Structure formats: structure tokens, C-alpha cells
Amino acid sequence: MFPGALLPISEALTEIGHTAYWVGPSLIRLIEGERPVSFALLTDATQAQLTALFASAVPIADSRGTVMIPSPAGPVDATPLRPNGSILDELSHFDFTIHAIAYDAREDALLDPFDGLADLAAGRLRAVRSAADRLSEDPLRGLRAIRLVATRGLKLDPELEFALADTPSGLESIPRIRVREELVATIMAPGVGQAWPLFERAGIAGRLAPNVRTNAGLLIELLPCELALRLSAWLIGARARRALQRLRFSRPIVDRVENLLQLHPIEMRAEPQKPAAVARLARRESARDLNAAVVLRRTELRVEGQGSGDAVDKLERLARALTELREENSRAPRTRLALNGQQVMDQLGCGPGPNVGRALGYLTEHVATHPTHNEPDKLVELLQGWMAAKPEA
Asked: Is domain 123-263 classified as CATH 3.30.870.10?
């Protein structure tokens, strides 16, 4: 179970009289036969003693004096015990019982004071001692609990589920990036449909993005595992840009989600029976975004129980028209644009990015049907018109 490459670290500590306990989610992965990429260790050695003992140790800027020790098996975060504390004291402050397990490599023994192994076998997520106390110590633990439901298929202990109701009140104290990481891990997980109602019942989804739709989890789960697409499903009807910027998402993700939501519902953006309207839509938007918008709307209608009807019919006719147009364009000979990428960026006033690709796609498709327009002044004029038609960011 235990990687031999880690033994020299714990042996180096115990040989000079220090304790060494392997702990945390990485230990659970080892127990389940998986291979973690990083590890955690608790010891009664101080940070100074750790850096003196391990020449390659790198201090981490935290309040506990943790150091990172490189190893062939992966990085090890070694954290000193609290002053006058014991391993039992430390484990009593862990979040969940399945994490409050320690392995003593010297004794080749597991310490499981809170029956975490039994909870793991039962597929149950239970807080160590008091759920309310554990969540109040770190409100991020509420999001972590929901993420573990999504990623591991665990069931929340009733006390823990009840305590989740107080999680939103502490969200503002958590760095946005840490909230984003938990949200992304949940939204991309195979069990997001099971976990998402917990976000809604606890008030977390609404706190992160007011006015979001209810029951978004089922829609998200049925979509391809693509971040921008799944975020779009969550944020239908909400102020997406503001919510994503507050969570420190990258600009390309923010821009793409907003564009997908501006296209939604896609069947209202062009009349399928009007080739010119379909062509204009295809010139304005990338094939990637149009395909994603169709998938989003098709899945939404399915979730809403609309397997047939005017919206479904119009959507499918538009999807076919867009596909036929792309196939027709792919067979047509390509003409080299009279403007290159750098000239387009100069006109847009930006560097490389998705908007440049959309602009080039728009110009290329226009020239395919209007070859005489392929000259610099005309393309600049077309580009300026395209920019003016794009909604403000």
C-alpha cells in the first residue's frame, strides 16, 4: 500500500526521535489502491528541524510552519504538530472522518479514532465530532463536502447536511480562487447532478451568482465535460460576467461563457429557412461556439421534457442549416485574406485571443461568398462593422 520512496522521509524523522504520521486525502487514495501525486505528513519536528534534516525542503508560507519535501513519489507537505499537541488532537480538527486517519510507517499501523474507515466503506461523509464546529473553522469545508459528493459519490451524514445551511455566511472570508477551485472540481465531476441540489439548498449557488436557475445540476451533468459549456448551463439568467470575474476566472473563459449565453437560445438567432440569416450568424460566430450553443439548448429542452414542439423543430432545422453551410464552405476553394492576423489585431486593439479567431473566421466566410470584397480597405470596413455589431464586454 505505502510507496517505498516515502519511507526514507519518515525513517529520517523517527531515527532522531521525532514522530511521523502520513495523513489526509492522499492516504485515503493509497488505502483504495490509487497512486496520489502528492502527500501530507504530520510530525512533532519544528520547521527549523525539518529544514535542517532535509536539505531540499522548501518552507511554505503558512501559519503552521509547513515545508515541502521533494520525493521520487511526489512532493510531501510536512507540517509540525501544534505546540504540546498530539496526533489525536490534530486529527480531531480535521474536516471529515475519512480524512482523520493517520498511518504510522514505523509501526505499520493505521490510527482511525473517528471510524473513518467504516464511513469510507459505507460511502458516508461525516464530520469529525461536531459538523457545525468543523464548518465554522473553515467555511470552505462546506464546498469541499459538496465536491466530495460529486467526485466520490459519497452521501452526506444528516448532521453535516444540516450544518451546510450556515456555509454561505462565511463564503466572503474565503479567497475567491479557493472557492473557484472547489466549484470547478464539482461542476466537472461525474456526480454533479447528485451534488448540485446541495449547492442550491445550502444557498451557495445563489450567493455565488444571484438569479441562477434552479435544478441546474441535471442540465450540467448531461452536458459534455467542457468547463465553459457547463458554467453557461449554471449561469443561464444570471449576470455571468460579474459572477465569473468575482471568482477570478480567466478572461477567455469569461468571454466564452458570456458569448454562449448571448447566443442562448440559439434557435432565436436566425431563421433556419433563410440562408442569408444563417450565413450571417455563421460569419459572426465561431463554429465551436455555435456547436456548443446548439448542444446547450438541445440538452436544456431535453431536461425540460420538450422532446418535440416548435422550439425543438426550429433548433434542429437551424443545426442542420449550419452544418450544411459549413460543409458547403469546406468544399469551396479558400482565398487568402488581404488582411493578416496582425492587421486584424491592430484593428481590434488587442492581442491574440478568441476574438481574433472569430474576426478572421467572419472575414474568411464573407470573402468566400463575396470574393470581390477581398481587398484591405473593404475588409477593414467589414471588420469595423462586425466590431460595432458585437455586444459590449
From this structure: no
